[in-house]
């Protein structure tokens, strides 16, 4: 039986996990299965994820803007895992016949380094000079959120971006234009690539699925 291209990368996951140590999470994603895209993982305690965990907002944006067509990899961007854990994340794009089929990701827990730097600052007196404990730990750029509810988190972020609050009473009073703007942000972020996204968005924005499709159509006509 012919092996899938990602089967070859599965062997690397445990290997890299042991080489890099327990503070480095190694993840293999199948981008053809966005709702449950993690197919292999080492040191999953770093982000708290397991095999079958859903896609992240960062990967959805990569799929939506097709950044993978121009780059082989993205390194040293910030990842966030609960509770308030900051990671240094890097992703290698796996292609087959001109299509993105997977990603090999390494996420390093920066907590020990942040604690060490803070101790050094305290010992050297640098803490008195107004420098925060987390400066320059993680490179600037996109931020990837490791969440079990990526749809919910992305909807909340989009609503706050447009109207400043995601409270239920606020969402119940959204105007049509505000809903269109929110759906536009979610489309750009790639949310609608996920199965069940339209229904979830309709419920969250207190409208029908037909309305969501209608708003998407209006946005497509404008573009």
TrEMBL record:
Residue ranges the record marks as coiled coil: none
Start and end residues of each YheO-like domain: 6-117
One Pfam assignment: PAS_6
InterPro entries in alphabetical order: DauR-like, DauR-like_HTH, YheO
Protein name per Swiss-Prot or TrEMBL: PAS domain-containing protein
Residue intervals of the Transcriptional regulator DauR-like HTH domain: 169-215
Highest rank taxon of the organism: Bacteria
């Amino acid at each position: 039986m012919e092996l899938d291209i990602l089967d070859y990368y599965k062997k690397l996951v445990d290997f890299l996990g042991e080489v890099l140590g327990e503070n480095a999470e190694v993840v293999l994603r199948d981008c053809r299965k966005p709702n449950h895209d993690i197919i292999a993982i080492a040191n999953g305690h770093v982000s708290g994820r397991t095999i079958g965990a859903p896609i992240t907002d960062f990967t959805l944006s990569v799929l939506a803007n097709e950044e993978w067509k121009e780059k082989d990899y993205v390194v040293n961007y910030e990842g966030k895992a609960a509770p308030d854990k900051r990671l240094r994340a890097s992703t290698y794009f796996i292609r087959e016949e001109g299509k993105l089929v997977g990603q090999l990701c390494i996420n390093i827990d920066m907590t020990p380094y942040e604690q060490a730097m803070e101790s050094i600052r305290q010992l050297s007196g640098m803490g008195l000079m107004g420098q925060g404990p987390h400066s320059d730990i993680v490179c600037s750029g996109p931020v990837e959120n490791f969440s079990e509810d990526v749809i919910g988190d992305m909807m909340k972020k989009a609503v706050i971006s447009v109207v400043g609050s995601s409270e239920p009473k606020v969402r119940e009073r959204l105007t049509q234009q505000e809903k269109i703007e929110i759906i536009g942000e979610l489309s750009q972020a790639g949310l609608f690539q996920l199965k069940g996204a339209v229904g979830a968005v309709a419920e969250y924005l207190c409208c029908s699925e037909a309305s969501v499709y209608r708003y998407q159509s209006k946005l497509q006509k404008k573009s």
